[in-house]
Design a protein that fits this description.
The protein has 324 residues and is α/β, with parallel strands linked by helices. It is built from 10 helices and 15 strands. The chain has helices at residues 3-9, 100-115, 152-155, 161-172, 189-196, 232-243, 245-249, 265-269, 277-289, 320-323, and strands spanning 15-17, 48-49, 52-53, 59-60, 65-66, 74-77, 82-85, 121-124, 149-150, 178-183, 209-212, 220-221, 224-228, 254-255, 294-295. The chain is globular.
Length: 324
């Protein structure tokens, strides 16, 4: 199929693009035999490091980082006798953005591959987590009774993130496409603005627009998304904050209430009882459609889908976070 034919069939087609990590089955992992440390002098697409030796004589993980799915962020590779890092699932090893050859592989054989075939844009997954603090230091100990610690401060909005995104933007420049970034762990408007501002440095507007996580985190206890908290007033404040973005900064914004990580908006922000479901779905649809920004609907939202039945047992939930 030619790029023109693909564009006619799916004029608004855009891909979910994961540049912070890859799948463990990816062919990137077998390009060359991986060679120790961080892969800076050889082509190793993964961020690896050798284990430390504990005071008891055995090996231990390189640091105390915890993954986003509550497990340790390091997994031992029996083949290389090294640990590789994954801030998400162990089957999603982190790519080594410090390695220029690895970045070039991403640009040439992932980004260009799809745009040359007519894709109109990318949703860039966790696009603020490509750069980690040099040396991979231990995370601050805030839970002394836990083996691992939350390490977001060492890998979200890292020291070279804007350098990398600006470099990637140069690859995107020849294409007539759009990009929308996922920007977790960035509640401060000033930090977020650096990614999408027409006046940001080292270059303007690294990403066309971003999904902010204020909406995603509504009604969740910080550090424990499964412990709900009231959010009535926060809902209004959240929407108002991001609606002011184009007027106050010149940057564009997104409009959304659902994604693959959250419950259905009818259930979260209204009521999914039979007598209210239709009214709530129409009310939320009207709200979104009258706001400023690019509107994104998650699959099933257009017909007012609701959460799964409460009668389901925990064994019937298959997402990684639930299993862990």
């Amino acid at each position: 199929m030619s790029p023109m034919e693909l564009s006619k069939i799916a004029s608004a087609l855009y891909k979910r693009f994961m540049t912070e990590e890859c799948e463990s089955s990816s062919t990137w992992l077998s390009i060359t035999p991986p060679i120790n440390t961080l892969g800076l002098s050889t082509y190793d697409p993964l961020l690896r490091t050798q284990s430390k030796i504990s005071t008891f004589g055995g090996s231990q993980r390189p640091n105390n980082w915890r993954s986003q799915f509550t497990k340790p962020a390091w997994t031992f590779d029996d083949t290389t006798q090294e640990y590789y890092i994954h801030v998400y699932a162990s089957g999603q090893p982190d790519l080594n953005w410090e390695n220029e050859a690895c970045r070039r592989e991403i640009y040439d054989n992932a980004i260009k591959f799809w745009f040359d075939r007519g894709v109109d844009g990318f949703r860039v997954d966790t696009d603020n987590k490509f750069s980690k603090v040099s040396g991979l230091p231990d995370a601050p100990i805030v839970e002394p009774d836990q083996e691992t610690q939350t390490a977001v401060c060492h890998y979200a909005n890292g020291p070279r993130i804007h350098e990398y995104l600006y470099e990637m933007k140069q690859v995107l420049a020849p294409y007539d496409i759009m990009t929308v970034g996922e920007l977790p762990n960035t509640p401060d408007l000033e930090d977020m603005w650096k990614y999408i501002s027409p006046n940001s440095q080292p270059g303007p507007q690294e990403i066309d627009m971003v999904f902010n996580f204020d909406t995603v985190n509504l009604g969740q206890t910080p550090g424990n998304r499964f412990l709900p908290i009231p959010f009535d007033n926060d809902f209004k404040r959240c929407l108002t904050k991001w609606q002011k973005l184009p007027e106050t900064t010149g940057a564009w914004t997104t409009v959304f209430l659902e994604n693959h990580d959250q419950g259905r908006s009818v259930s979260r922000f209204g009521s999914d009882l039979p007598e209210f479901r239709e009214q709530v779905a129409k009310m939320l649809a009207s709200l979104l459609a009258t706001m400023t920004g690019t509107l994104f609907l998650y699959q099933g939202q257009e017909i007012g889908l609701i959460n799964g039945p409460e009668s389901w047992s925990a064994n019937e939930y298959k997402c990684v976070r639930s299993v862990n």
